[in-house]
Every structure is written in structure tokens, then in C-alpha cells.
């Protein structure tokens, strides 16, 4: 039975841009956070691909990953994830083959099948090529580029034979089933799309087939955590996250806004309900509250690893949240 002090914790980061920051500021803060969470013992630091969003600075995910990897030494650096329909599989194999060559045994490649943006931007990225319906075929092509004993007419150099674990990411059972059948690790995006989490985890385990890469199922779930020294402070800081989700629904700027004393007058009742549903697995509070919530989550889901997204307007508050959460794993 997994417990909090036996469950690895990792970090999901979107290089969030505060409303008064530059893109460079956001990238520097992500790098600083990676260094900080590495010192705290977190397992992974993953960056996510999103496009045409002014509040996210990780669009060129592999480029930013390399920068972060250059400024850290032990924490695994990954993509959580690369949206494969936006790219030629060969291009991703070459990029991550390069990363895996420069930073041996430290690079993870999480793959998703959504565009990570609006359809107009997706078309601009893709120009022509595969859509989500061709995802299994594209994934198979990508994986083969990394295999040392799977020669093809076109090879990825660097890439072939480079150890880059491939994860499947998802917010439904589709990728869960595929990850199980391929014997690959699976990560569920419960930090913004919680509805199908339990079903997806069940499907993953039921369909898992051992592979050369994984003997047993390995599931991770991403959730939001905002820990502070008091419940009141945490709830105040969390209003920045609420504002971001409201602005997402309104198609407005996604730059992180300062916290507010109350959300009343900012969101409407329907928006409040929608945000609360999307943030179902968002744990906000002091150390005692967060510990209880994380223990319950791990007990309920039986996940092997928890990936944490923490986004406060103040960078030091974000770092403090990760400090408080990391300390919980040392409690008996």
C-alpha cells in the first residue's frame, strides 16, 4: 500500500508568466524552481507544451528543457508533455535524442495527443500532417526511432539507442489503454481534467502488458497543491489560480494575476462551479491539511507517483509551497 512517505513527488511547471513579468522572467523563475525542487528531493521537473497563450512560456518545450537541465544536476527533466499531433515524430526523436545525449539518464518524454492550443494555432503548427486520430501510428513511429535494434529507412541521429523513457499522458481512458497495451508508464492530468481519472487508472491497470521497458504498471497523477504556513494564507494565494481558470474560460489573458481577498464579483456562479469541478484535485492549506489530503489521494488512487503543479503569483510563495510539501514526505 502506497503512503505519502513512500511515494515519489515530482513537479509540473508551465513556466507561468506573471502579469508584470517578461517571458525571460518566467523562464528564469522556472529554472530557479527546478534548482530549488532538486535540492528538496523531488523526482522530476516536467515542462508542458502550450501555444498561443500569453501566460505560458514553455512553448518551445525541448529548448527550455535543455536550459533547465544545464542548470540542474540530478532531477529528471521532462516534457509533460509534447503534443505529438503538432510535430513530425522524427523531429521529436531528434530533439529528445539530443537532450538524452547531452543529459544521459535524466530526460523523460511525456506524449499527449491533444494540440495543447486552439485549432487555428494547431493548424499553424502542423501545416499538414497527422491529427489526433493518427496518434497511435505516430507514437509507434516515434518509439521506433529510439530503438537500437529497430533499423528503419530513416533513422534519428541522435536518437537511436538513446535512453529516453516514453510516457503516455492523458485526461481520458484512450491513452491509458494504449499505455497499458504498450507497457509504458502513464500520467493522468487530474490537475485540470479530473472527471475520468479513476476510470483511466483502472483501464490502464486492466490493459497493462509487461514490456522491455516496464515489468509492472506505473501510474502517476498530476494535481494542484498550494501549501502555506496557514490555511488562510494558502486560500488567499489560491485566488490567483482561480482567476487564471476563469480567464481561460473567458478566452482572456492567462498571465498570473495577484491574489485577491475574495473572488466574489470576479466569477459568476456558473464559472465558480466550473472552476471548482476542474480543480477537484487541488489541495490548498497548511501542512496538516495538505498531508491529510495527499494521503487520502494516494490511498484512493493507488498511484505510484504524484506530480504537483503549484502556481502562486509570488515566486517565493511557490517555492515555500514545495518546501512544505516536501517536508511531509519525511513525516512518519
UniProtKB/TrEMBL annotation:
Its ancestry begins with:
Bacteria, Bacillati, Bacillota, Bacilli, Bacillales
Q: Which Pfam families match?
A: Bac_luciferase
Q: Name one GO cellular component term.
A: cytosol
Name of the molecule in the record: Luciferase family oxidoreductase group 1
Provide the species name: Salsuginibacillus halophilus
Q: Which residues are in the Luciferase-like domain?
A: 21-296
Q: Which InterPro entries match?
A: Bact_Lucif_Oxidored, CmoO-like, Luciferase-like_dom, Luciferase-like_sf
Question: What top-level branch of life does the organism fall under?
Answer: Bacteria
Task: Show the GO MF annotations.
Answer: oxidoreductase activity, acting on paired donors, with incorporation or reduction of molecular oxygen
Stored Gene3D superfamilies: Luciferase-like domain (3.20.20.30)
Amino acid at each position: 500500500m502506497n503512503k505519502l512517505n513512500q511515494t515519489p513527488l515530482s513537479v509540473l511547471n508551465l513556466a507561468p508568466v506573471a502579469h508584470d513579468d517578461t517571458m525571460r522572467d518566467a523562464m528564469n523563475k522556472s529554472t530557479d524552481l527546478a534548482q530549488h525542487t532538486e535540492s528538496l528531493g523531488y523526482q522530476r521537473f516536467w515542462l508542458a507544451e502550450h501555444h498561443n497563450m500569453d501566460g505560458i512560456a514553455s512553448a518551445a518545450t525541448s529548448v527550455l528543457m535543455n536550459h533547465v537541465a544545464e542548470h540542474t544536476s540530478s532531477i529528471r527533466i521532462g516534457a509533460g508533455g509534447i503534443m505529438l499531433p503538432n510535430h513530425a515524430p522524427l523531429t521529436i526523436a531528434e530533439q529528445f535524442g539530443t537532450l538524452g545525449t547531452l543529459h544521459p539518464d535524466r530526460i523523460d518524454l511525456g506524449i499527449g495527443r491533444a494540440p495543447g492550443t486552439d485549432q487555428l494555432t494547431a493548424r499553424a503548427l502542423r501545416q499538414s500532417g497527422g491529427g489526433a486520430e493518427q496518434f497511435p501510428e505516430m507514437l509507434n513511429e516515434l518509439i521506433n526511432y529510439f530503438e537500437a535494434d529497430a533499423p528503419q529507412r530513416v533513422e534519428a541521429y541522435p536518437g537511436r539507442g538513446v535512453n529516453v523513457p516514453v510516457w503516455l499522458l492523458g485526461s481520458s481512458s484512450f491513452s491509458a489503454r494504449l499505455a497499458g497495451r504498450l507497457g509504458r508508464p502513464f500520467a493522468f492530468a487530474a490537475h485540470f481534467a479530473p472527471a475520468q481519472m479513476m476510470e483511466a487508472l483502472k483501464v490502464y491497470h486492466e490493459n497493462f502488458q509487461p514490456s522491455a521497458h516496464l515489468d509492472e504498471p506505473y501510474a502517476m497523477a498530476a494535481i494542484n497543491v498550494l501549501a502555506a504556513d496557514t490555511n488562510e494564507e494558502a486560500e488567499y494565494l489560491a485566488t490567483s489560480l482561480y482567476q487564471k481558470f476563469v480567464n481561460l474560460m473567458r478566452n482572456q489573458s492567462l498571465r498570473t494575476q495577484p491574489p485577491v481577498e475574495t473572488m466574489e464579483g470576479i466569477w459568476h456562479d456558473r464559472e465558480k462551479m466550473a472552476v471548482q469541478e476542474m480543480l477537484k484535485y487541488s489541495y490548498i492549506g497548511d501542512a496538516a491539511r495538505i498531508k491529510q489530503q495527499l494521503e487520502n489521494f494516494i490511498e484512493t488512487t493507488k498511484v505510484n507517483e504524484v506530480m504537483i503543479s503549484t502556481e502562486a503569483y509570488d515566486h517565493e510563495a511557490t517555492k515555500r509551497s514545495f518546501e512544505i510539501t516536501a517536508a511531509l514526505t519525511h513525516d512518519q
